[in-house]
Amino acid sequence: MSGKRKRISNDSTTTNPTTTIIVEEKTKNPQEETNITKTPEVSEELGNDHSEFYDESGEFLWDKYEGTCPTRYRKPNPHIKTNNGDKVFSRESYAQELYDKMEQYGTDVLPIVNPGEIHDGTIYAIDQTYITVDIGYRELVYVKFGKESDEVKASSVGDKTAVLITETKGTLTGTITGGVRHKTFTDLRDSIDEGRTAWIGHVKNMIDKGGYVVTVQGINCFMPCSLAGINKLSDFSSIVDEEIYVVPVSFSADRGTIVVSHRKYLQALIPTAIENLKQSIDTEKEGTVTGTAKYGVFVEFDQCLTGMIHNNDLDEDTLTRFKTREIKPGDPIKFKVKDIISNNKITLTQKDVVDVNPWINISNIYQIPSVVEAVVRSKKDYGLFINIEDGVTGLLHVSEIGEETMSVFNPGDKITVQITRIDEGTMKVFLKMPQ
Questions:
Q1: 270 and 343 in contact (C-beta within 8 Å)?
Q2: Average per-residue pLDDT in the chain?
Q3: How far apart are the first and last CA of the chain?
Q4: Distance CA 392, CA 396 (A)
Q5: Predicted confidence band at 15 (pLDDT cuts at 50, 70, 90)?
Q6: How much is the pLDDT for 352?
Q7: How far is 48 from 59, CA to CA, in rounded Å?
Q8: C-alpha to C-alpha distance for 237 and 193, rounded to whole angstroms
Q9: Phi/psi of residue 74, each to 5°?
Q10: Can you give the pTM of this predicted structure?
Q11: Which residues contact 298 (CB under 8 A, 6 or more apart)?
């Protein structure tokens, strides 16, 4: 009896519950076992079988696999050169080029834009609703087409412009007309100190206080009558509605007005005009009478030059009209250039015989240094005035000749001197005794 298995009692008084044990034996199929191929464990989170990461020989492509893994599993690409601790995980061939472009783009973008600022930009697109402008910010500036000036509406894509930022909340908006005007006003005001920039202005109208309203790129400026020309205008209304060059000369902070001058622009042209005049000194010219005096007639010519015809150089008809006071400012008059004394002093004549100014191209006639035979014109304590030729006189200072030698010479005596320097602007000749 001891070898028999104990019966499981169904007695209700049994304290241990009934337990059923099922044992299943699984036999392996040898055929299936030999066909099993070992593969790496597949993460259920990735949701793919990774078959794309095997080459034809069954080798696992780890570099390709790491390029698709979540960032925390990937390694940075060691072949990419970065800045500021940046990490690039891409293994693509263009990764370095793309990183370099993104790095450069970040430095060009404006960090922040505020209302009231003026920015230079390029027109990106135009339609009947908006003009968009690229100012190098992370978004474009939207300008309402219908509120802009006709000049702005005629703009083209790619044109450079200035834009005034009006709103930054939500859509970035601005105005090109306002931006251009603000920038022009600032440029005009800043160019006052330099005084070398000329602007094209439109003489809009005259005002009661003796001046003009001149519009420069939409900015109303003030030009006094005294600055409207080299000389006083014979007809102040003659330049109204004309386009002239003006130079900003001052700014009134109280009135917010920029004062411009056409006269200053003309004065800048004088040196070049004088050089051109020397090349055509024998040519008959025509100018405009600007005024008269008891000794002659003042004439404006070649846009910026002014000369005088002395009474003795007037022809018979003009002299008669001069004596009867019939010559008036604004009258046309013909003449020839008699002498160019300086940039601001030119003598004219209506006579047939014109004495050529000996100072014209004098540096080409007398090479430096030149030894010439001359005549003592006058004698002073500090030196001798030497007449090189008619109209050309130089000073031989006592320090160059010595008091003892100078005492030998008298006015009218011939003397040999050496020219050391010629200043055509001041019409001075510097002399010394030859070695």
A1: yes
A2: 83
A3: 161
A4: 13
A5: very low
A6: 74
A7: 18
A8: 30
A9: -90, 160
A10: 0.53
A11: 231, 289, 290, 291, 292, 306, 307, 308
Q: How far apart are the C-alpha atoms of 397 and 355, rounded to whole Å? A: 30
* Token pair recorded at residue 304: 């910026």
Quote the CA–CA distance of 378 and 409 in Å, as a whole number: 10
pLDDT in tens, 194-226: 878 899 999 999 987 689 999 998 899 999 999
DSSP, collapsed to helix, strand or coil, labels residue 103 as: helix
Which residue do the tokens 């003796």 mark? 210
Q: Which residue has the tokens 């072949």?
A: 79
Tell me the H-state helices in 149-261: 150-153, 176-190
The domain tally of the chain equals 5
Q: What is the DSSP string of 369-408?
A: SEEEEEEEEEEETTEEEEEEETTEEEEEEHHHH-HHHHTT
Give the residue numbers spanning the domain of 82. 67-108
Three-state SS for 129? coil
Domain boundary among 152, 183, 214: 183
Joined together, the tokens standing for residue 159 give 């044109």
Q: 421-430 burial, b if ≥16 CB within 10 A, otherwise e? A: ebeeeebebb
CATH of the domain at 205: 2.40.50.140
